[in-house]
Amino acid sequence: MEKQAETAGRARGGRGRRALVAAVMGCAVLGGALALWPWQRSAVRPPLAPAPGAQALTAVTAGVPAALPGLATLIGEREALLRTHPGDARSWAVLGAAYVEQGRRTADAGNYPRAEKALRTSLNVRPQKNAAALDGLAALANARRDFRTARAWGEASLKLDAGRWTAYPPLIDAYTGLGDYKAAKRTLDRLLELQGGAAVQGVAAAVYRDRGYREDAAAALSDAAAAAAQPAEQAAYLERAGQLAWERGDPAEALRLFQAAVRLDPDQRAAQAGQGRTLAALGRTTEALNAYRVALDKQPCPRYALELGELYESLGLAQAARVEYDLLRTRAAHDAAGGMDDELVLGIFEADHGDARTAVRRLRAEWQRQPGIEVADALGWALHRAGDDKQALKYATIATDRAHGGGVRSAPYSYHRGMIERGLDLTAPARRHLQEALRINPYFSPLAVPPARRALAALGEPPDEPVPTGTPGRDDEDGKAHRQPR
Question: pTM for this one?
Answer without folding.
Answer: 0.84
